[in-house]
Write a structure and sequence with these properties.
342 residues, alpha/beta, six-stranded parallel β-sheet, globular
Length: 342
């Protein structure tokens, strides 16, 4: 098998997408500890990738001329770049940097690649980290799936100051470790979100069980000035990326749509109740830590497909609205009934 001195993984998408690549990244480093791994993401993901011990160099790209010249100089004639994204601009940069092997999906930038990857129909019914691993093996011959526990996610731990900040925040809000539920009201794509009125109804039901709820995420552009029940603590905008992981790590349970938080909970082995509409469940839901999957009853779902007659997200989605509060609450009751610790 060919030995690579340098491998670049390029993923200009969301934070959750980057977390789903951590099994592949860790696997490469375990198989080839002397290979230098560079991760290219967007700037909002950089605080995360900089704290991953299996990444030797974390870079961010935002189409500025300064960034383009820096990338060309920094990555000049490296061995391999695996373009998980379909960005035209960054692929041109990799070509100008004369990277020897440039593999990825052709999309509109095929002329800048040296080897094409293709999605196959089965990939819509397979867990996404496994799809990444198979595609990488097809392109390079490197098979990370032969490693023990190869599909383990990674999320950075807090440092001492961050832990102190979060412990103080939790104490001020009357939270104890492993004594609350984490929820997130919004994802990166609003079509995947559960209606806010359903969240509020669920929170009131959880209040009847004396369960505290912590809401995580960034400050919302849509869901502000909402009167939450007394059992709900709104931490949106109160944590950085790493601190947010600490709050998830110390929860009993996560209730969320397809989003970053599902992957963070998976990294810390926190049970998940997942709510799914447009997203194919098998492709996104962690098989080991998902306690319950609650899927839309809409006949047109899932529609966010990799291959085939994909319709993408519709302008007036109704699929998430078909998930009822009773559906979710019954699973919460079952979770606490089955886990004697709680």
């Amino acid at each position: 098998m060919k030995k690579y001195n340098d491998i670049i993984i390029s993923r200009l998408m969301g934070i959750g997408d980057t977390i789903m690549l951590t099994p592949l990244l860790q696997g490469i480093k375990r198989l080839y500890p002397d290979t230098k791994i560079t991760m290219v993401t967007e700037y909002h993901t950089l605080p995360l990738t900089k704290r991953m011990p299996f990444i030797d160099q974390a870079l961010a790209f935002d189409k500025k001329l300064h960034d383009e010249w820096y990338f060309i100089k920094n990555l000049w004639r490296k061995d391999l770049v695996y373009c998980v994204d379909t960005s035209y601009r960054i692929s041109l940069i990799y070509a100008l940097a004369m990277i020897k092997e440039r593999i990825g999906f052709p999309h509109k930038r095929g002329m800048y690649l040296t080897k094409y990857l293709q999605y196959e129909p089965w990939m819509d019914n397979a867990y996404e980290p496994f799809v990444h691993a198979v595609l990488f093996k097809q392109a390079t011959g490197i098979d990370v799936t032969k490693l023990d526990n190869w599909d383990k996610f990674y999320y950075p731990e807090v440092n001492r100051d961050e832990k102190s900040n979060m412990d103080n925040l939790m104490r001020l809000n009357g939270l104890k470790q492993h004594n609350y539920i984490v929820c997130s009201l919004e994802s990166d794509t609003w079509q995947k979100d559960w209606p806010i009125d359903k969240w509020l109804e669920l929170f009131n039901k959880l209040n009847s069980l004396r369960k505290k709820v912590v809401i995580l995420g960034i400050k919302s552009k849509r869901l502000n000035d909402i009167k939450f029940p007394d059992n709900v603590i709104d931490f949106r905008g109160e944590t950085n990326l790493i601190e947010m992981g600490y709050i998830v790590k110390n929860a009993n349970l996560l209730i969320a749509v397809s989003s970053l938080f599902v992957h963070v909970a998976n990294a810390f082995n926190i049970p998940i109740i997942g709510l799914y509409g447009p997203q194919p469940v098998i492709r996104d839901a962690p098989p080991k830590n998902t306690f319950a999957l609650i899927k839309t009853t809409a006949e047109c779902a899932p529609c966010d497909l990799l291959i085939g007659p994909s319709r993408g997200h519709c302008d007036a989605p109704f699929c998430m609205n078909s998930i009822t509060v009773d559906d979710v609450f019954k699973e919460v009751e079952r979770f606490f009934a089955e886990d004697e610790k709680f």
